[in-house]
Design a protein that fits this description.
Layout: E1 2-11, E2 14-24, E3 29-33, H1 40-47, E4 55-60, E5 63-64, H2 70-76, E6 78-81, H3 93-99, H4 107-120, H5 122-126, H6 137-149, E7 155-159, H7 167-182, E8 186-190, H8 194-200, E9 203-208, E10 211-217, H9 218-221, H10 225-231
Parallel strand pairs: 3-8, 3-9, 6-7, 7-8
Antiparallel strand pairs: 1-2, 1-4, 4-5, 9-10
Amino acid sequence: MLELKNVNAGYGELQVLYNISLKVEEGEFISLVGPNGAGKTTTLRTISGIIKPISGEIDFLDNKIETFTPQQITRQGVSFVTEDGCLFPGMSIKDNLEMGAYIIKDKEKKQENLEYVFNLFPRLAERKKQLAGTLSGGERKMLSIARGLMSNPQVLLVDEPSLGLAPQLVSKVFETLKRLNDEGVTILLVEQNVNTALKLTDRTYVLEQGEIALSGSSRDLLQDDHVKNSYLGIRERE
């Protein structure tokens, strides 16, 4: 469904990504993990069109999208849930959700999508008139994911969904992502909590200093010595 081929990208003269190649098949749940500053968020921003690659190709459903605008990429079926959510704090929950469906012209389809996310997040339905700026951190995260679903995406890019949340809310967010994947939504997840990401996803890419250092099934990487030593705090006894 989605493939990056030797993608180089960065910010101005600062190159962050070096020859990144990865694949996401339809229906997969993929995680991208690594230390701070490794380029994980930059990878998602490049896929979503916020950053244009210096070189390389990004293929989505057999279309080359590396030169597309973010709006064009959204119309292709890619939705990006950013780390901070990019919500409109002075607008209601319902209005924020409807902003997520701006590319959909069919009013009946918009209403259908709204009912779907309200069913997925009943708490948002109960408080649909409440201003987004008054929500708790966990509620804002849920609203961000819900808004990302309003455009009917075929792949959901999710950046650091657990950041700043209490442990019980983190569990709820990940349960929701797992449910979405079980329902057929393809997900590419960037997450600092490596242990949780590996237990939740099908495959994982480990990004270090802007390059893919390791990749494979998440289950196998849970047993990898480098991953255990560097990210899981597990060291083999001498």
